[in-house]
Design brief:
Shape: elongated
Strand order of the largest sheet: 2-3-1-4-5
Strand content: 25-35%
Helix content: 25-40%
Mean pLDDT: 79
Radius of gyration: 34 Å
Structural class: alpha+beta
Distance between the termini: 87 Å
Largest sheet: 5 strands, antiparallel
Number of strands: 10
Number of helices: 8
Length: about 300
């Protein structure tokens, strides 16, 4: 869609580099830029509002407030016009706060990549790594987000290097894990094991005072408490530092012999035992059968 100027764009995204020659932009690059920018603004807005950025449905009012639409593509270098859909004014409200946090945060990263800016949690940094990942001398060398005559956000090789240098602060929280314990390493230097859960295998480490408890619970269903270090997505457990372990009682399989013994059943000693008692008078048996069926004697 070529913009005809009939709709005023709130923001302009300009991409420069060999991949944009002739006013073109690969569809995959367009999709990456659009989804990455939108996701980054949503995460920043959620953080500013004090909402969780974990897995699950995000507040509709915040998502709508920062929602943007692609409304035009201009010739020359790849220039994309973007319009707001969630607010009436771009210079106020949640969207402006998110844009300001993005602008100030990326400028701060360029100067101090070892210091995480406000609201730049692991998920925001992941999105920035994805956005800057396409920057190269053979693809797109620079991407700039502008509002009127003001530059709000620039993606280039300098930001790419700064984001890569930024270390993720480990996210740790108390967690409880349920699963089947297996694969232990009990060497004095490394006390570790793994547990299979419905979500996958999780690595644990533990102190020597829990060594016997872990050994006793091998191949059993267990419930474990501890401090979990999470992956940058803030959800997946990287490792659990075990502090408490308890077995979960489950039905253990028993042999046929033990089941028979528990029910007081003994083996058949003779085939005669299978015959049962004599039926007696067959006519009385048939009469009882007909009566049970509700049949009359005369039928």
């Amino acid at each position: 869609m070529i913009s005809d100027g009939s709709q005023v764009a709130d923001l302009t995204l300009r991409a420069v580099g060999p991949a944009t020659e002739g006013g073109r932009l690969p569809l995959a690059e367009l999709s990456r830029l659009a989804s990455g920018l939108q996701a980054t603004l949503e995460l920043l807005a959620l953080s500013i509002a004090g909402k969780t950025t974990g897995v699950g449905r995000r507040p509709r009012e915040i998502v709508d407030a920062v929602r943007l639409d692609f409304v035009g593509f201009r010739a020359g270098s790849a220039v994309l016009d973007i319009a707001r859909t969630g607010q009436l004014q771009i210079d106020e409200g949640v969207l402006e706060q998110a844009l300001t946090a993005l602008e100030e945060g990326t400028n701060s990263l360029r100067e101090q990549p070892d210091v995480r800016p406000p609201h730049f949690g692991p998920q925001v940094l992941n999105q920035l790594r994805s956005l800057t990942g396409g920057i190269s001398t053979s693809n797109v060398t620079r991407i700039e987000l502008r509002q009127a005559d003001r530059s709000r956000f620039v993606i280039d090789d300098a930001l790419h290097k700064a984001v890569r240098r930024t270390s993720f602060e480990k996210i740790a929280q108390e967690s409880t894990v349920v699963g089947r314990l297996h694969t232990g390493d009990f060497s004095p230097a490394t006390l570790r094991c793994r547990v299979d859960t419905y979500a996958g295998s999780i690595l644990w480490d533990f102190d020597s005072d829990l060594r016997n408890a872990v050994l006793d619970a091998m191949d059993q269903m267990v419930m474990a408490d501890g401090i979990a270090e999470l992956e940058p997505n803030g959800v997946t457990i990287h490792i659990l530092h075990l502090s408490n372990l308890r077995r979960i009682d489950t039905a253990e399989p028993k042999s046929l012999e033990s089941l028979a013994q528990a029910q007081g059943i003994t083996p058949v000693s003779s085939v005669e035992e299978l015959r049962g008692e004599s039926i007696g008078d067959m006519s009385d048996f048939l009469a009882a059968l007909r009566s049970a069926r509700g049949e009359d004697e005369g039928e």
